[in-house]
From TrEMBL, chain A:
The complex is composed of two ATP-binding proteins (NikD and NikE), two transmembrane proteins (NikB and NikC) and a solute-binding protein (NikA). It is found in: Cell membrane. Its main location: membrane. Keywords: ATP-binding, Cell membrane, Ion transport, Membrane, Nickel, Nickel transport, Nucleotide-binding, Translocase, Transport. Residues 7-249 form the ABC transporter domain. It is a peripheral membrane protein. It comes from Nocardioides dubius. This is Nickel import system ATP-binding protein NikD. InterPro entries: AAA+_ATPase, ABC_Ni/Peptide_Import, ABC_transporter-like_ATP-bd, ABC_transporter-like_CS, P-loop_NTPase. SMART domains: AAA (SM00382). Signal peptide: none annotated. Pfam families: ABC_tran. GO terms for molecular function: ATP binding.
From TrEMBL, chain B:
SUPFAM superfamilies: P-loop containing nucleoside triphosphate hydrolases (SSF52540). It comes from the Bacteria. GO terms for molecular function: ATP binding. This is ABC transporter ATP-binding protein. It holds the Pfam family ABC_tran. Gene3D superfamilies: P-loop containing nucleotide triphosphate hydrolases.
Amino acid sequence: MSVLLEIRDLSVSFRQYDRGLRRRTITPVEAMDLAAAPGELVALVGESGAGKTLLGEAVLGMLPGNARVAGTVRYRGEELTEQRRRALVGRELVMLPQSVTYLDPTARVGAQIGRALRLAGRAQGRDEVVAALAARNLDAEVARRYPHELSGGMARRVLLAMALAGSPDLVFADEPTPGLDEDSVRAIFAELRAIADAGAAVIAVSHDLTQVVEVADRMVICQGGRTVETAAPSAFGQGAVRHPYSRALWAALPANGFAVAEEVS
Amino acid sequence: MTPLTLSAEGVCFTHRRRAPWLLEAVSLALGSDEVVGLRGPSGAGKTTLARILAGLLRPQRGTVGFSEPRRRDTSCHRVQLVTQHPVHAMNPRWRIADVLAEPVSALNASADREQILAGLVDPGWLDRFPHEVSGGQLQRVNLARALLADPDFLIADEITASLDAVTQARIWRLLLERARERGIGVLVISHDDALLKVVCDRVLDLGDGGVI
């Protein structure tokens, strides 16, 4: 199977004004590598602030103007230029955003899903909106609500309905599950798994290690702006991960001892 | 200090008129010497209940009260709420030092404030803005601010759901340590049963709008 997306030695830096006119450059992403093939679900796990979200934003061209991206990003074997990106993002390449603030606070949920369906070139009638909600276990009544009337879990499922309105080939799911109950987490990972099985490549950023190892094909572990290790999901439970940070991550899970390993901080 | 109790009795709440109750006749009691978990399906009203307990929402029926009058010297609410996204809880134009100076309490004006901050907030962050520290670091600032308000109770609503496991374990160690030292009761809202099992003395279930 050929690789759909290949990222090599990606770095992202920002130029900022510090005090007055003094400028500084910070580099939150130093060297990240990642590859995803059609049909694959790749989990990107690791430290908060390690640059997992920035990696997705760099691929989809969502970074602010003061960001500098270096390294190679290839999509379908060719470099992902600004021009290609503009043609692909939102259709073939989609982001399932992390923050529920991506919802418009002034529009009803039904209208927002309808808009996503229209942008994806789908029919956008009431029936389609209700079907998109029902596919995520949400009642038709939810269409009339505003975002502040949704629970965290419901808002996340609405975002999922919007992101998957088209039939994307590459989905970058940024933390799709925090704050959800176990059944909803399982349902969302099952949906991402199904999208991968249907032929798309899915990259899922997650802190929910116990659940994501159940569905992922590969785990990419990162810390401090670098990808430190790529491992099989089963390697965690078998103690076969090599990098000290990967081990610390597994040992810190509440069910595995809640250990705070000082040497990795 | 002898423990005191925060109690909710028969609390009913709905976001819109004529809609069914989101919370119906919910009652619970939380001691200032315990760490209690609150679990329940997504949409059951956990966060709404947290906001009611913290005085941010008023229930349409029922009451929230304390077993004893205020005895700490603070102008902040006796129940402090810490939520999942600290960046939404802070003024983006304030530096971390200003964020931490906000709670008006005798504790925040005394030398004891340093004991709260030690291990929780790195002095190097103080002149930065909220978006210039990582999510885990900002959650520690958020927690420190809640503690500096010198509350009797603290509600932790999915405070580590967006954080990696190592950062999560570190934050909970610090929180439980401070809560024990200062006699603060903690209500832990989480979907992570493994986490609740490790940090809580007991766990309550909030069914679909139902009674605990």
